[in-house]
Amino acid sequence: EIVMTQSPATLSVSPGERATLSCRASQSVSSNLAWYQQKPGQAPRLLIYGASTRATGIPARFSGSGSGTEFTLTISSLQSEDFAVYYCQQYNNWPHTFGQGTKLEIK
Amino acid sequence: EVQLLESGGGLVQPGGSLRLSCAASGFTFSSYAMSWVRQAPGKGLEWVSAISGSGGSTYYADSVKGRFTISRDNSKNTLYLQMNSLRAEDTAVYYCAKDLFLLGLIVTVFDYWGQGTLVTVSS
After folding, report:
1. Touching check for A55 and chain B: CB below 8 Å?
2. Which one-letter DSSP state was computed for residue B75?
3. Is B59's pLDDT higher than 90?
4. H helices then E strands: how many in chain B?
5. pLDDT at residue number B1
6. Do residues A51 and A71 make contact, with C-beta atoms less than 8 angstroms apart?
7. Under an 8 A CB cutoff, do B59 and A94 touch?
8. Which terminus of chain A has a lower count of CB atoms within 10 Å, N or C?
């Protein structure tokens, strides 16, 4: 099973600043990597797939990069609605696995 | 508008069984793979099981293999998860989720999620 490790566990950033979230795979997942956002009491929301393709309706301030084992989600200028938990997920090898999440909190 | 509505959750004793349903609308159900994803209280997401659009292919997480069965009825636009031999560690909110790609094949990139149904396994 591929283990997805996200860092940091918690990230404190001020509104308007840039946030960089990392996701590492225990073996290569090519570009088969998605990012989701989850707010308390809500279902997750797809942000990025194919490591760098924004899903429909996702603002341009969200961007994804990486391939193989190292991936990054960048939020260029944090808005109040961006504070949430973010998960990466690989869909290259069965079972398809999620990272443990990064909580993005207001500094 | 795509809608996914889960039902069937509740309190069950260890060793018991439960069947979850997910009623889908707003898209051509048979053209998309579907999955179940769960989230234990205060924990992260765990993919549980997936099924292709036709129902001919299924996959399971090791943690549920042999105990859970995923199925679908395309005539009723409904996804199911039969859960047997339930354990305390199966306690979670169970989400059904729709694959993004119009392939019928299983990719597990999820563009729509239901609101979830809570399953509690406890004596």
Report:
1. yes
2. T
3. yes
4. 0, 11
5. 96
6. yes
7. yes
8. C
